[in-house]
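@channel anyone free to eyeball this complex?
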Amino acid sequence: MSRRIDPWVLSEDRFRPELAPWRESLFTIGNGRLGTRGAFEEFRPGERRATFVNGLFVEPPGELPVLGAAPDWTDFSLTVDGEPFDLVAHPPAGYRRTLDLRTGELRRTVLWRGAETGTIRVEFRRILSMAEPHLAALDVHVTALTDPVEVNVQTGIKGGIPSPRVPAFRPLDASRIGNHTFGVDYESVDRRHRLQVRCHVRGLADPAYVDDLEHPRFRSTLVIDPGASVRVTKVVAYQAGADAGALLPTAGTDYAALADASRAAWERRWRTSDIRIDGDPYAELILRFAAFQLIAAASPDDPRAAIGARLMSGFGYRHHVFWDTDVFVVPYFTVTQPDLARTHLGYRYRGLPGARRKAARLGHRGAFYAWESADTGDEVTPEWTSPASGPPIRIWTGEQEEHITADVAWAADHYWRWTGDDEFLEAEGAEITLDGAVYWASRLEAEDDGLHLRKVIGPDEYHLHVDDNFYTNLLAAWHLRQATSVYRWLHERSPASAEALLARLGVTEAEVLGYADLADRVVLRRSADGVWEQHAGFFDLEPLDLEAFEPRTRAIYDLLGEERLQRTAVIKQPDVLMTMALLPDEADLAGSGTVNWSYYLPKTDHGSSLSLPIHALLAARLRDPEAAYEFFLRAAAIDLEDTMGNGVDGIHAACQGGLLQAALFGFAGLGLGCGGPTTDPRLPSHWSSMAFTCVYRGELHDIEIP
Amino acid sequence: MSRRIDPWVLSEDRFRPELAPWRESLFTIGNGRLGTRGAFEEFRPGERRATFVNGLFVEPPGELPVLGAAPDWTDFSLTVDGEPFDLVAHPPAGYRRTLDLRTGELRRTVLWRGAETGTIRVEFRRILSMAEPHLAALDVHVTALTDPVEVNVQTGIKGGIPSPRVPAFRPLDASRIGNHTFGVDYESVDRRHRLQVRCHVRGLADPAYVDDLEHPRFRSTLVIDPGASVRVTKVVAYQAGADAGALLPTAGTDYAALADASRAAWERRWRTSDIRIDGDPYAELILRFAAFQLIAAASPDDPRAAIGARLMSGFGYRHHVFWDTDVFVVPYFTVTQPDLARTHLGYRYRGLPGARRKAARLGHRGAFYAWESADTGDEVTPEWTSPASGPPIRIWTGEQEEHITADVAWAADHYWRWTGDDEFLEAEGAEITLDGAVYWASRLEAEDDGLHLRKVIGPDEYHLHVDDNFYTNLLAAWHLRQATSVYRWLHERSPASAEALLARLGVTEAEVLGYADLADRVVLRRSADGVWEQHAGFFDLEPLDLEAFEPRTRAIYDLLGEERLQRTAVIKQPDVLMTMALLPDEADLAGSGTVNWSYYLPKTDHGSSLSLPIHALLAARLRDPEAAYEFFLRAAAIDLEDTMGNGVDGIHAACQGGLLQAALFGFAGLGLGCGGPTTDPRLPSHWSSMAFTCVYRGELHDIEIP
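replying in thread with the prediction:
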């Protein structure tokens, strides 16, 4: 509650065991290739220790694919005069943890004494190198403060990490390579991946090697006099499958040198990701945390890597990829870190075969993207979920939440317009766009009154099997027009490419050119006063006074149940309003934004972490920046205060991306005019100025408001 | 962490079981006569439910006196469709608790469902009437939100409250008085107090009376349809011993009417206690919380009532009174709520016989105030304490922390100078002052080099049995001079009173007139560069680098132990600097404040809650308001964030008083000139203005800075 905020540092001043699981997510570090949750180095009961290697999806027997937790490099245990260094058994006498967003370094300082020991000070520092993304480094500094202590250290590579239930990797072989180094080879439990790990430890006196295949490690005893200290440095390299190159850094394994190089690499990212706000250090911290965690989870160059719905910070959704990435994360990357956006679009391109398999399985042509995808692009949404009590619940989103296909095309178009990356559009974007449109053309059902999409789920997932969801229909119509337009562009640029694409997709030019006409016939319903009907029959649903349910922290879904929700006019998250955020012209934001806002907002549960940031963005566009700022704070609290109570599963990617979009596209009103970036600011009154950088067609634009 | 702060409302948005014990202290309400911890109405495992009646000290067999917890009026349990309303068994679906500092109303709204029940909304509101201080009122509003529910209510007066270990009262008799009312009579376990309680409940359909002497109560079952609600109002009166007057309000027992009258009474207190700070709503909240809790714990008219070190918010120190009240709380009351200051001085006057007994027992003349006192003024400091591990520890403060006597005289003088209350000085203040001086004159040991006080404990309680503690010696010297001066004043005002006082104290006029000369001979030691030596030998103690112990949350006492601390130059709290806060001229703040600050601050552990606010005050006076503001925030965090970890025992009276003094005497530089109040502002840079009211000689002075 203190009003002094360091806008670059996420910090924690006390160890509270009950908050520790969520804080492990919050203090995640990453470099796009590796991600490590903020679990303590030493064991903590209930910990969810995890390091992820981006892209290494593993399919344990009988389970859906999951980004497998790799064997753990942070492992570092101490005993002090025979007593385990354990913050639960003996609460610390001092504790401070900081995540320096500028440098990417996580630091934890603990003052501790056991029942019968003197007081020691232990400082842990760790990075995942942004300069050499296969490298992890840990620095541990132990000082005796009051009495001489004998410290026994064990540190190595810990296998058998639950991922989230069973381990994803099994060890094949471990061996000591030198005085300070050992190596371990692993295989994923589905045998699809090999993973080599090298571990190098300096600072231990005469280390013994413990030849335990599940936990190879060094062991050493240090005697420290009062006032004296020892420093142990550990550098670990992860090498998966086809990776080449030396495992440990040739330039040595000095922690400070590795940290310096990593910081320099982060500085390059911050050049375009920093947002400065005079008058609101907390908002700066919110936005820097968001940018940090998004960048930390995004590979700059590997399209096999994926940005999961909980980033690389937890096991939520098994790291599966949703529209969260396309619509909430990628538009932010597009304008600040376009290489990271491009990698995701490459991931989507790689997923096309899976999307085609899904469409075919459901009896349609074209490509129907997976609602949840792992590495192949095939649908991996679970069909059933088991709540804490009651019978299993059927999940329909895999079959019915069709808008994902248009979301991908929308992200590709947004990327292309900002970057001018014609090569992408020709090589990958056009195919993504056209094959999705082929799906829509095959899927739409013709009636006398127009084209329908029946039995779908829109962004409002509280209403299942609905007809003509407004978001889905409008996005599908946009997608069809976009396909015609992209085809014309491609044909103009390279007739041969266009022809080859048509052949590959099995459609004729006439079909594709006709998509724009199809689009005009897609049914969209609107009341006399301009309210779009979210789906057929929505206007007739039973009203519910959501205000009477205040103060509410649980989703209304939990209180009413799925069945009653079907007939109740309460929505999980913006749906009609969501179209206004993505397609303001098509959804008539300028004309009917306010009337739709007034109609839908009181019916909105914010039962998804995607809801609040979009409301922040739209409130700013609708010229109410103070209301927007309230939504912005509430959205930030989802991860920074765990207000949804599921923080242990990881940081909410879409919410973080949404916060950044609310800042740029909402408060600053960043847009694209004929001559490049434009702004139309609506800052909260206490923001005296705002400054940021965007990237347009490869060039940096430094923008200052006012 | 949200930056939106309501500067009048302390709030809590989630129920966190692990924080609940401390939050019970934080959400205490009071009216000077009654104080009730913020325990839930329904039972919570681990609760420390307590209502205190100010002044009712009880001495359970074999224990030290304690302010006894009275039988509980907040008792209100529900079952919903047979399931107990229990936030631990079934975490709430929504929760918000607010303490409105302006009105004194505590409100808790809970959204809840059991395993098999519909969702209900329960709103609890409670006040302790500031208008009629023997009255407590509770209003409970239950709404069914989703399904019909059958609610069983039981509400009454719960006896057997541990206080803190055994109950302080036993029931004698309980009987139903009418359809909606019952009465219970209690006796304290030491048979010194009688307590009558009347309980009146409206809103229950056909209530049954449960004739249980330990827990007499009404019981009723209510059926509530979805969307409908019921309201139950409970009014309870506490009448102790000699109190007269009707027990229940004659004007009816309407909650809203009682709350309105109470709010109006609070408004009168806020007229002189509100501090407004443009640019810092959090600082406003800090200061309003402080003023609220101090006023809530202070009787305006009953000198048997006492302001304990943890106010009426917990069992810490068994509600005993320390110098915390005289030096940290009363100077604030003196300038804003002089009647509350006066009551405490009346309490001290009542304590004189006990102080005389203590001096006599130790072989001295005059009055030596108890380090800890309850109702009689006799010393009630425990002689031993039992730590969690290790052998019992002898507590020496009762014998050795002698400065308390001068602190009381200092508070009386400060009060008199601001209020001009000559009647007080003549009737009580002069006797307090003179009899304390008689003690000092009897206690001082003469050597060739001057007068000494050997084997004392100063404010820095880390060093025991020290000689010539600077704070004690300087305050004693001031006290001796003050006695001579007060005697001269009294003699001039009323020679008969002066003569009678001398006779009562058994001293001659010559002795008293000679005290000023004694004062000049009290030993005070100082280094060549102006550093006062805290006690004989302090300059030779072993140095310790406290910085190396950062980040530290536990007191250095816990890490080094008492024995080593004796020879180490680390102090618990300001001692030399404390004299500068109280007697800036005598301690040469203007000349040597900075050099003493630089010398002592790095040696200060802040192991007491008294330490940080005094540093805030002094830093402001030494013209570093930004540093002062950091101390101010850290001091506020002791209670608002439980940074010392002992919040369950109650709010720290001295810290709250110190925060208010830091604001008024520090940041605003409030002082007393020849013509009345003066200011010498040193505001933190982000405070664009500050406004408050002080009372000087019965007149209100509205002060605005700048």
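from a first look: The longest strand of chain B covers residues 229-240.
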